[in-house]
What we know:
There is one protein chain. The protein folds into two domains: about 20-65 and about 295-340; about 70-285, no CATH class. Helix content is about 50%, strand content about 20%. The protein has helices spanning about 1-25, 25-65, 75-80, 85-90, 95-105, 145-150, 165, 175-185, 225-235, 255-270, 285-330, 330-340; strands spanning about 70-75, 110-120, 125-130, 130, 140-145, 155-160, 170-175, 195, 200-205, 210-215, 215, 220-225, 245-250, 280-285. Helix 2 (about 25-65) packs antiparallel against helix 11 and helix 5 packs across helix 10.
Amino acid sequence: MRYVMNRLINYLGDAISGVLFYFRQTKLRTFLTLLGITVGVSSIIGIMTVLTTFDRATTGLVEEMKTNIFYITRDNPIEISFGFNDRHDRNKPRITWSEYEQLKRVLTLTTNISAVMAEEPSDRTVSAGKNELKNRLSSFWGGDGDVLELYKYELISGRNLREQDLDNTARVAVIGYDIKEELFPYSDPVGQIVKIDNIPFTVIGLLEAKGEMLGQSMDSMIGIPITAFLQYFRGRSFYGEGLQLIAEAESMDGLDAATDEAIGAFRAIRKIPPGAENNFYIATNDQLMDTFGDFTKYLQMFIGLVAGISLLVAGIGIANIMLVSLTERIKEIGVRKALGARK
């Protein structure tokens, strides 16, 4: 038994020594082989990581918004985000404040309709006293109190935006938790002054932390009354100078009817002739997620193609290295066989 164990240990030792000797003699070839294996495995891991991240992000995005809401915008907001909107979309008329007020008066199947103008992200300078925000805002928007409810933000201190804030074009703001941590680390920000492009706003509300979405903080945000946004900042909005309207149906069952009513009412406001296509975009959360799903589908195809090419190149590289190694050892193997070697 001891004899067998010694033979086995000697055999393994010889094998390991031979491998290490071969590695030392062919360092470049060994490196290229390991590189090929690493590239192939990393490609597969990368694909799974990206697809899992997008799936979680999409699911989280749906969960962070109410399901019975729909949007009216000039363009598809997801296509704008990824730069897919064409010249035809850019030539559509922007949604105006007057159109919003008219639509708000005639809709009967919605419980809320809010006008929003946003910069996502925003390069505004934000400061409080001697403290200045180092990172840019993930979102700077103008709206009303319904915006926080529609996007499921919760206040932990202070109050929400009110109708009189809009009527008076009040310079007040609600801020995300990241803003508080950086500008007011040791105090309650409510009642204090925050400057946006050197324009002072009084903080009236602090929002509960929500974490990140698609790698971007949802707490590095500031919201002000839409009227104040239009007066002081309208020139650099994510939606140009146009508004985005967010409406909430009474229930999921009534969402289709509320959407149809909004389409008909907005066509009438804009005097669009019968048979002509809409010069605005309207969609529910589900439709936006379908658009997002189409984008991720093409992304998956692209990533799969890149990974396939990487695996193919790695496989060809490894095969070539093995072929060269075998060719170089043909004479050595022949001599060993002639001397009686079995392997």
